[in-house]
Write a structure and sequence with these properties.
14 helices, globular, D-Maltodextrin-Binding Protein, domain 2, 303 residues, five-stranded mixed beta sheet, 41% helix, alpha/beta, 2 domains, 10 strands
Amino acid sequence: MQRQGRSRLAQEIRIEFTRFSAFYSPLIATFASGFLQQEGLAPKHSVSAPGKSAIASLADGSVHVGQSAPSQAFGALEQGKRPPAVHFAQINERDGFFLAGRHRDAAFNWSKLKGKKVIVDHGGQPMAMFQYACFKKGVDVKDLNLIDAGSTEKMIAAFRGGEGDYVHLQGPGPQQLEHDGVSHIVAALADASGACAFSSLAATREWLASDMAKAFMRAYRKARAWLLATPAAEVAKAEAPFFRDIDLAVLTSTIATYQKLGNWTPHVEITKPAFEVTLDVFQHAGLITKRHAYADVVVPPPM
């Protein structure tokens, strides 16, 4: 009888990831470890089609929560339009990409990239963050030979095929390459660029006023606290069914690295100082013409 009661009360919550990787473990943990289910929600997750953002699915009402980034709002704001969704909680407060090279290099510094072929993720925010990290490290990206190999999968295939001296990837991509003896991680972009409003949870203002949003946020807070307090091996075991192409040891290593880097802070709010750094990044890249207002992009989490 108790099981039937839970089933009858369960309400489907649809979540879309613009990208799906271990970097987004705070959101993955909400359903991988049962926190949404404990709130009476039945999670259904999907991944955006290539070239599409989860924001589009929020706008058409097909999903409730989207994995996104505050910078997704800049396109609409640059056109003088109101963004269709707002960003209400952070997933990562630091960049989650790494640089991997062909050889182990304990003495790596960013100046070694000059004149080298670097396969770089050419997505809007990843590229802007890469340029900003180079700037912070005193390197002019014009001195690098940047290669656009396409999607993450194509970037990895190109590097495995011998193209490029370095590759710029989000975990667990570079960790898997290292595990396979193809490359060695030489730098984390988080260490170069510091704290910023990198990735986020987004939704419509209307949904955020709902009881479902409050239940989701309770689950998310619990999942985030669990993620920070739990050994990486245990987290990886819970998430492994969603990463069948990644070795468990690699997934464990990736999660441990993000825990140590401080990507997943205890607070869930998108802070104004972090948002200001994101504006710095996009201004440096020439992707925005003015500094957009925090209140036009970010709202407090539902309580």
